[in-house]
Amino acid sequence: MEPNNENRVIDITAMEVHKVVSPPHRSTFQKLKNRLKETFFPDDPLRQFKGQPLKQKLVLGAQYVFPILEWGPNYSFKLFKSDIVSGLTIASLAIPQGISYAKLANLPPIVGLYSSFVPPLVYAVLGSSRDLAVGPVSIASLVLGSMLREVVSPTKDPILFLQLAFSSTFFAGLFQASLGFLRLGFIIDFLSKATLIGFMAGAAVIVSLQQLKSLLGITNFTKQMAIVPVLSSVFHRTNEWSWQTILMAFCFLGFLLLTRHISMRKPKLFWISAGAPLLSVIISTLLVFAMKGQKHGISIIGKLQEGLNPPSWNMLHFSGSYLGLVIKTGIITGILSLTEGIAVGRTFAALKNYQVDGNKEMIAIGVMNIVGSSTSCYVTTGAFSRSAVNHNAGSKTAVSNIVMAVTVMVTLLFLMPLFQYTPNVVLGAIIVTAVVGLIDVPAAYQIWKIDKFDFLVLLCAFFGVIFISVQNGLAIAIGISILKVLLQITRPKTVMLGNIPGTGIYRNLDHYKEAMSVPGFLILSIEAPINFANATYLKERISRWIEDYDAEGGKNKKQSGLRFVVLDLSAVTAIDTSGVSLFKDLSMAMEKKGFEFVLVNPIGEVLEKLQRADETKDMMRPDCLFLTVEEAVASLSSTIKYQIPDNV
Known about the structure:
Layout: E1 7-9, H1 28-40, H2 54-65, H3 68-71, H4 77-104, H5 109-114, H6 118-126, E2 134-135, H7 138-149, H8 158-181, H9 193-210, H10 212-216, H11 227-236, H12 243-265, H13 270-291, H14 323-352, H15 358-373, E3 381-382, H16 384-392, H17 399-415, H18 424-436, H19 441-450, H20 452-467, H21 470-490, E4 494-499, E5 506-508, E6 521-526, H22 535-555, E7 564-568, H23 577-593, E8 596-600, H24 604-613, E9 625-626, H25 629-637, E10 643-645
Parallel strand pairs: 6-7, 7-8, 8-9
Antiparallel strand pairs: 1-10, 2-3, 4-5, 4-6
Helix pairs in contact: 4-13, 4-16, 4-17, 4-18, 6-15, 6-17, 7-8, 7-14, 8-14, 8-15, 9-18, 9-20, 9-21, 12-13, 12-18, 14-15, 14-16, 19-20, 20-21, 22-23
């Protein structure tokens, strides 16, 4: 509190006091209905059906479930020309990335191509984004592979590992679709921006370090994902380094990073970075084939199976000792891929000024993973790199995904023998180039400037991933984020208000230095809902405010004694029974000390619950309930004279 200086007497101008009106009566059923609607249906998806005839409702319902029926009837050849260009462009990126990401997940390379064929077809029917390009992504591949490899070796038991990967994909899709059907998409909001940026950067570092096996030609490499064992494995295996592999890695990695830099500087040249991975695969394959590089220490993919996706529903595990593992892996990879896919879809929707329905996206991504798990595919979603290329190439509708899928189908049927001599070093270079973009230094710096606690969350996610493990780093970051929310709930902000001279405005005394406290009044504002988690803290904090006021009055004898405790409840949006008990206790405590306890602007639900609890009508008397702080001060001070600072 600021000390009072010289005193002078002023007249308190009388003003009209507005009555605080009780909210309109609503039944318990109406309240519950409104709460459920705002929780699960904030977008009100049924509003388009209101007032429509039955036939139109059926049409709208079909279009809602299958968005392709909405834009399909109006599809034209002009749109197809744009979509075929963008589809072929992303196919040139999806083929080498699919092979590379499958290896990142410790799966056969062919599974990456399978995952770029069936899921895009499903998404084209169910998805609502025009720009999302579907396929395997680096982070989900890394998490899937690392979590399963902790229990099952992909080299010693490849069939079981593949079965667990498909089973995890099924549970990922089931979890994703369930979130959409049950309208529980807000669950993924626990992955804050800071958590995602730190996690993505840490995962990018780990993914890049893992590729040192391919880039250096090491054959015996650690299975652990943390940075220390990875670097230890690299420098303890210098005898396995291959200069031919290192030379090829340097050339192609430099080429890919250069094309990425050019496309970033000049977005119109997006096709350069989009076509660079496929061009690298073609050139490196020809070089290895011509020079018989496999005989000189250069590791190659080997023969790949021809043909379309074989069914895999008989490989899914729904019981046994691995059930817990595949459910946990499915949920974690499902959340990560869902978060990435929806974020990417909304980003490009905003650029083109159209809406993406988050819950429909969850259902679409979930269904395509469920279908994918039965057709030899692993976890897929909308990847930022491919979607950016799709957007820049002029994609108009989801037909670009169909074009990409058809291109991959042709590759699976007729072109697989051409990839036999593709060197693993190039696949490693493609992965490194793709994940470099996940390290967003400007965004991290922006978080540092805005919120230091969020930056701490970012660092925990980053260092947790690179020093402990991918899933534990993510868990630590989410835990700290939840702790931050709990702290905000259990320790709500309370501030002392003062009057800005010459106005009826009352603001935080610490914020507005010109604001002055009103003698005889302790005016406090609570800026959070009041519930069982913070009621005890608020009681103690308000008691300390009163003690501080009294102590300040003892030091400054010219300051008027405390007469009124005013609580501004404008920012209190909700209250429970513990909160109601808090006000009852405060009211009795103030009465014993000879203070008047006054409430200002309790809103809706808060006012209604306080009135129901005030059986004796002592706490909610008209002279203890005001609409604004200005009216409360004017009304309460109209019967007495005040000694107030001369500079008010």
